[in-house]
Amino acid sequence: MAYQFDNLKLEKGMYHEAGRTFTQVLESMDPDQQYKGTAMEGLDAFQRQLKRFDIKVKGAGSDVVEKFFRSADSAVLFPEYIARSVRQGMEEQNMLPAITAAVTKFDGMDYRSITAETGGDAKKLRRVEEGAAIPSTTVKVQDNLVQLHKRGRMLVASYEAIRHQKLDLFSVTLRQIGAHINRMHLEDAIDVLMNGDGNHNPAQVYQAAGEGVLTYEDLVDFWAKFDPYEMNTLLVSNDMMVKMLKLPEFQNPATGLNFQGTGKLATPLGATLLRTSALPANTIIGLDRNYALEMVQGSDVMIEYDKLIDRQLERAAITSISGFAKLFGDAAKVLKV
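Above: the chain sequence. Below: its structure as tokens.
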């Protein structure tokens, strides 16, 4: 059986179509549904192109980087391989989905989010008498723009230096670049949670009873501050994680068994505990992940595809654009110890 993917003409312009990724352009030319019930089912359009040129990117039998450049068509696939490897690194141990309530795609650098304002007795559920006015919630755009930031890394390597490197090994370096980029986005998210997004909405800061000392009573009092929201996520610095693990309330057999078996610590307060060195020392951020933060994506992973296709790897930029907006200010609070 002749497959359509074998005859596609690949060119640089496929990376330049507005609103569509390289894979989406490939998919429009070579739809997945044509391969249902065949040996190609389960592969996307890019993976079929790798099969077409017999390029193996994973495992002990992976090919060398030079295999991409055996023809002009196969060289066009190299930037997408870079982007996918970087994206994989960004997704490994990614905390952002655990702290963001919504993700908005936005084509630009300045974004204006929305906020909700309520009238008097905002947090009370009042009975509405017959003929009385119903309490209102006003949704409006924020006063100030939310700035999106470009975060990235420069890939500095000559083609001669990496041409004979195995793709499986090269992917490790690319995944590390992705991890660094995602760490920068996490730092941006934490900054917005603590200091606000420029719309006069920094988090309320509470001080533990004893300076430098964390007690279970501090955590319970902190949890009580969230009504009507739910404190379902705790971001903690490294030193705070150690102090939490030493609390007697965290040393019951069920909690310890779960931590030893999975590496995940379920707190007695029912919140998901996330440790990150991106937080300052002696700091805990509590939040209701369903209402606290909006992630605004200005772009997915972007690379200088012209340079990569032409083997000009020296100083090829790999970037991603994102920003964060506070949704409901009271849904995130800070505890300082």
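Residues 4-97+147-188+299-323 form one domain.
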